[in-house]
């Protein structure tokens, strides 16, 4: 698959993947004498070679790079940072919530393990929850080597850098940022908006271990982008997007529809998140446990925010009920 280059000053780096993401996309942006790398792909030889090829084909050297700007901390957006930094020291910019994640701070990651242990117990997950916690511990050990070595400088709402306006869009991850070029009407969207698949709003704790209402945040962040004047969205995966309003409306409608289906399951008598997840997703409850639980918990938060459901704790497990049945 190719993504057509729309303007000379954006140089997309597109790396195919067999997964449903289709491609890993990141971008060189040449703007008023600066050359920024927006996201940094995944840490693979193929990705590294694609990056070097786009640099060479367009006559750039590592000396031309001025900074790396990151949409969010996920490994398929930060993969080449250490390799690039080992060749040229560069400022790395990201949301402040990215820093302890990218620095793999031990205290935060052990708090994160405790958070998921407790969460899956409170959602009645049983053995699949315990297995997921073990997988998480293993992933933390495995990813220790991916710690970003360079200093990371924080970005926040309304900052500008390289002609880009920074917009906080928490939801897919708590540290998610998108970058708007107001004159050109470009939006570098990371995983906030993807054309061919809906982004998951993954359950996450904040720095104090409190659960973030990720889907509620995601809905607010989608609405925040609805009225931006954008001609082209440069996403983190898949093809360019030219109709962001239609796409956002589709995504918001899908969240409402899914919420209604979950509400129907609750009205049929299921009240625990893990049981709702199994009723909704069947075998995926085990095979894609963490994604499925994020989806269900996120939609329960969203329904609660809308006043459609309420929850009570019985024997250490949350039970959810449709409001109309309990009042
Ligand atoms: Zn992501």
Keywords, please?
327 residues; alpha/beta; Metallo-beta-lactamase, Chain A; Arc Repressor Mutant, subunit A; 3 domains; five-stranded mixed beta sheet; 12 helices; globular; disordered N terminus; binds zinc ion
Strand order, largest beta sheet:
1-2-3-4-5-6
> Which outline best applies?
globular
| Low-confidence regions | 1-7
Largest sheet: 6 strands, mixed
* CATH C-level of the largest domain: Alpha Beta
Number of helices: 12
CATH architecture of the largest domain, by name, is 4-Layer Sandwich
Order of helices and strands: EEEHEHHEHHHEEEEEHEHHHHEEH
Total number of beta strands: 13
- Mean pLDDT across the residues is 94
Per CATH, the superfamily of the largest domain is Ribonuclease Z/Hydroxyacylglutathione hydrolase-like
**Tally of distinct domains:** 3
Structural class: alpha/beta
What ions, cofactors and ligands are bound? Answer: zinc ion
Query: Whole-number radius of gyration?
Result: 20 Å
């Amino acid at each position: 698959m190719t993504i057509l280059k729309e303007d000379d000053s954006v140089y997309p780096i597109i790396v195919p993947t067999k997964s449903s993401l289709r491609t890993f996309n990141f971008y060189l942006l040449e703007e008023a004498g600066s050359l920024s790398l927006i996201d940094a792909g995944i840490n693979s030889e193929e990705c590294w070679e694609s990056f070097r090829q786009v640099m060479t084909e367009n006559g750039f050297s590592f000396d031309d790079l001025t900074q790396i700007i990151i949409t969010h901390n996920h490994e398929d957006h930060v993969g080449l940072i250490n390799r690039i930094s080992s060749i040229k020291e560069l400022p790395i910019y990201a949301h402040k919530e990215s820093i302890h994640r990218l620095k793999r701070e031990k205290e935060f990651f052990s708090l994160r393990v405790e958070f998921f242990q407790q969460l899956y117990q409170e959602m009645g997950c049983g053995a699949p929850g315990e297995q997921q916690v073990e997988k998480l511990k293993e992933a933390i050990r495995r990813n220790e080597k991916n710690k970003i070595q360079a200093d990371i400088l924080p970005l926040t709402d309304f900052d500008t850098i390289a002609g880009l306006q920074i917009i906080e869009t928490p939801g897919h991850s708590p540290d998610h940022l998108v970058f708007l070029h107001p004159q050109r009407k470009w939006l570098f969207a990371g995983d906030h908006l993807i054309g061919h698949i809906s982004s998951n709003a993954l359950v996450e704790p904040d720095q104090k271990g409190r659960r973030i209402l990720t889907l509620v945040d995601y809905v607010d962040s989608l609405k925040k982008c609805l009225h931006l004047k954008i001609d082209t969205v440069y996403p983190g995966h898949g093809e360019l997007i030219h109709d962001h309003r239609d796409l956002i409306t589709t995504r918001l409608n899908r969240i409402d529809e899914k919420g209604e289906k979950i509400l129907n399951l609750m009205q049929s008598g299921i009240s625990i998140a893990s049981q709702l997840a199994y009723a909704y997703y069947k075998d995926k409850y085990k095979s894609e446990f963490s994604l499925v639980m994020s989806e269900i918990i996120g939609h329960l938060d969203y329904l609660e925010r809308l006043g459609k459901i309420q929850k009570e704790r019985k024997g250490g497990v949350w039970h959810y009920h449709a409001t109309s049945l309990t009042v």
